[in-house]
Amino acid sequence: MTHQTSRAVLITGDFGGSAAKDTARFDKLPVRHVPVAALSPGLHLRQAGTNATHVQLLIEAASSTELPPILVQQEGCRVIDGLHRLEAARQRGDQTIPARFVDCSDSEALVIAMEANTSHGLPLTKNDRLAGATRVLTDHPDWSDRAIASITGLSAKTIASLRTRVATPDNSKRLGRDGRRRPVTACEGRRRAAEYIKNNPNAPLRQVARETDVSLGTVHDVCNRLRRGISPERNGNRTAQPNKATRTPEATPQPAAITSVPLRRKNHVDTPVTWADVATTIAKDPTIRYTTGGKEFLQWMAHHAGNPEKWRTFITTLPSHWLSTIAPIADNISKEWSQFAERLKQAEHKTLGA
Q1: Which end of the chain is more exposed for a tag (fewer CB within 10 A), N or C?
Q2: Residues 78, 40: contact at Cβ < 8 Å?
Q3: Domains of the chain and any CATH numbers
């Protein structure tokens, strides 16, 4: 890859797509087998170092298949993505490891590393992501809160809070996830959201937030304001109405300009995340893709979670004499799924508390 610019935004896809899509660009780079001893950690994203349990899982997976190549910064042979795979190779006694090299600056390598972590592998801890976000914010103070949030896996609100604690220049415009520079003022963002909703009244709220580079909470507020016929801006008042005292009998009251915006359904909600949304990303995790348990899980989920709403088509097609038999079976399955979800939440809390 030719190093043409110091702006990591160009390497990471102008913030336009998901991290998984952006980092997939590097899959086209040639693979080289590099001496393990020649590589260095470099970025140090994980304050506690590598996770021994995760390394062991990779060692077990590597015994039956070859793990994906790691990503290495060309200058200095610093590992951008794949420290756990590197440690697994060391413990296995491997002399070389497959790698792809990227010609990039240190600040670009940091952005690539954080985006790669959000698309596969062992997630960074909250403290690690905060530390990484601080480094990105220091290197790129002109990037918008939502742009940095999309890279680091944090919320835009968290980035905004970090910005107050990091000494950065006072930029009048910031670079958004789509590569465009926009004024920092909140009013400008609210106007963008209102205009987008006007042109795309049925768009999901998350889509509006993504396309206009404002927070989801702001989009909610703008929608509510438009529905009530008031300005989308925080300090906006209800659109001025003609003065009754000066209105002639023949005059027909004109609707407020803001009411020309097609109203979104009151009960409109964003579509929840489905298995289809995350299956590809999860399948890229070596500890799932290359382990027996992981493969079985992927197959099981593909079979049971691929189309969870399919049951709706059977309500009117099943013969009545089987309904009393199938209903309790469905009820039991739903209880099993609820228990599965609860156990996963408990395991997550236990991991976070460790």
Answers
A1: C
A2: yes
A3: 8-172 (3.90.1530.10), 185-260 (no CATH), 307-354 (no CATH)
**Residue 241 and residue 205 in contact, taking contact as beta carbons nearer than 8 Å:** no
Residue 352 CA to residue 71 CA, distance in Å, equals 28
pLDDT for 142 equals 82
177 closest CA partner among 210, 205, 130: 210
pLDDT range class, residue 85, cuts 50, 70, 90: very high
Cα 65 versus chain centre, distance = 29
Q: Which letter does DSSP use for residue 239 in this model?
A: P
In the numeric block, which tokens belong to residue 46? Answer: 């994980």
Tell me the C-alpha distance between 105 and 71, whole Å. 14
CA atoms within 13 A of residue 76's CA, in its CB half-sphere: 12
Is pTM beyond 0.70? Reply is no
CA diameter of the chain: 92
3-state secondary structure of 41: coil
| Mean pLDDT (whole number) for 276-289 | 83
The amino acid at residue 28 is K
CB-based burial label for 347 (10 Å; 0-12, 13-18, 19+):
exposed
Q: Which of 33, 30, 88, 98 is nearest to 63 (CA)?
A: 88
